[in-house]
Amino acid sequence: MRTARFAASLVVALLLVGCASGFEDVVGPDADGTQVDIGAGRVLRVELPSNPTTGYGWQVMDLPEQLRQVGEIEYEADPVDEEIVGAGGTEILRFEGVEAGNGTLRLEYRRAWETTATPDDTFEIDVTVR
After folding, report:
1. What's the pLDDT tens digit per position in 93-126?
2. I need a labelling partner for 81 at 20 to 30 A (CA). Which of 14, 57, 65, 87 fits?
3. What whole-number distance in Å separates Cα of residue 8 and Cα of residue 44?
4. Which pTM does this prediction carry?
5. In what helix (H) or strand (E) does residue 7 lie, and over which residues does it extend?
6. DSSP H or E segment with residue 47
7. What confidence score (pLDDT) does residue 99 get?
């Protein structure tokens, strides 16, 4: 009897974890220039390479009204030897689909204080929220 209850509890726990992590649609640099569809209430997680030790970072330049940015930009360092200084990693930006429609999300990789300089890189996707 205890084994059956344990198994049932385990299944419920796994379903809850699966549902919780299922609210994010993840895209990376290979999605640049493409069309992305998400459901209203779902989160679009954008993961792009970055190296903040250079002063560069991803900045939101165009945010369509169908999306809202969720939280702050996060940074995850690449797993490297601790003795390597200035190694890069990944910046993570999250956007929630708030209303049906489509628009363009445009990000630029630049130094925040160089407002007139050409960005080092860009990332742009057309987003449709359903």
Report:
1. 999 999 999 999 999 999 999 989 999 999 999 9
2. 57
3. 32
4. 0.80
5. helix 2-21
6. strand 43-50
7. 96
